[in-house]
Amino acid sequence: MAIRAEHEIHGRRKSRNVGVGLALLGFVALMFALSVVKITSLGGAIEGFDHVARPALAVEASE
Fold first, then answer.
1. How far apart are CA 9 and CA 6, in angstroms?
2. pLDDT tens digit string along 28-59?
3. How close are the terminal C-alpha atoms of the chain, in Å?
4. Nearest-5° angle of CA 42, CA 25, CA 40?
5. From residue 26, how far is each of 14, 33, 47 by CA, in Å?
6. What does the H/E/C string look like for the chain?
7. What is the spatial distance between Cα 23 and Cα 17, in angstroms, rounded to a whole number?
8. Are 10 and 17 in contact (CB under 8 A)?
9. pTM for the complete prediction?
10. Which of 6, 16, 41, 61 is paired with 31 by a 20 to 30 Å CA distance?
């Protein structure tokens, strides 16, 4: 037999859970927006790490 009556504590917990969920969603959206801004501000000069020597990053040895 299922319990049908909802106690007041369930309503408070639900509203608190909704608040925490919205805060988490806002934080994720903020991190995504900051990542997009950081990536686009680099001007397309992104080089991935693919275990290959990149001449653009090579430092000449001075003797």
1. 8
2. 999 999 988 888 876 656 666 666 766 776 77
3. 85
4. 10
5. 18, 10, 30
6. CCCCCCCHHHHHHHHHHHHHHHHHHHHHHHHHHHHHHHHHCCCCCCCCCCCCCCHHHCCCCCC
7. 10
8. no
9. 0.57
10. 16
